[in-house]
# Entry
Amino acid sequence: MQTFDLISDIHLEFWIPFIQNVDRMRSQIDSFIDDILPDKPSKVLVIAGDLGHYNEQNILMLTSFRRYYEYVLFTFGNHDLYMISSAQRERYNNSSINRWGEMKQHAAEIPGVFPLDGNLMEIEGVTFGGTGMWYDYSFGIQELGMTKARLHKLWKQAMNDVNYIIESPIFLQEEEKLSKVFKQCNVVVTHVGPDWSNVHGKYRIDPITSFFYFDGSKWLSQARGKIWCYGHTHSSNDYAIEGCRLVNNALGYPNENPFSKLVSIEIVQV
Ligand SMILES: [Fe+2]
# Structure
């Protein structure tokens, strides 16, 4: 395998409305995917979280991707934990973790589709691994000198996560999952980004940036030669830090990145 394809932050229901007519929705999803495919799809697709708000729709999308990809690997983003209606809260017994559990279970039933949640997946000698990860407020603490308490207050005011996620992932547990797989990965996949050094302009002084990254320095110091795929911020990026290539290829909402598509990432074995 020389390349894999990457996308994140698809937010499917913003592109294809969730409707009861499954056949119609399936064909709409198929044509949506046909539109964002690269000219020559790789064998492996990586989705770095934020598939969408409805598990049924996400499953149709994963199945649709399989028309082109032999393997589809994905991790969760914050939106994959959202419960946006009382019906969803009831269905998942008021637990976002239950929603993600259902998603993982149904996805794993599709041959060739593999959730990444603190586990590894080796394909033709390339090891992929990761988990959704979570933000840890480090940006605001380290760059803006803010206290955790103040940032937490701001998080409650500014982020939808507080309204739609019940039982957030716990940062320490996500950290443990990542630590467990990190060493063996050639390709690391997280939804939340590990490094904010490439954040510029108004976002550099905006405390909200604290909710889009975690301090990944302890991993990045041991990441030479790895590729680290992430998302959560809807701005694409491709740069290196300490010999690790960090790539974000977020699709984002329909009005954000009108020309974005899947990208192919070259794997350089070291
Ligand atoms: Fe996100």
Summary: The pocket of fe (ii) ion is lined by residues 50, 77-79, 191, 232 (CB under 6 Å). The chain has a mean pLDDT of 94. Residues 22-36 form the longest helix (15 residues). The chain has one domain: 3-266.
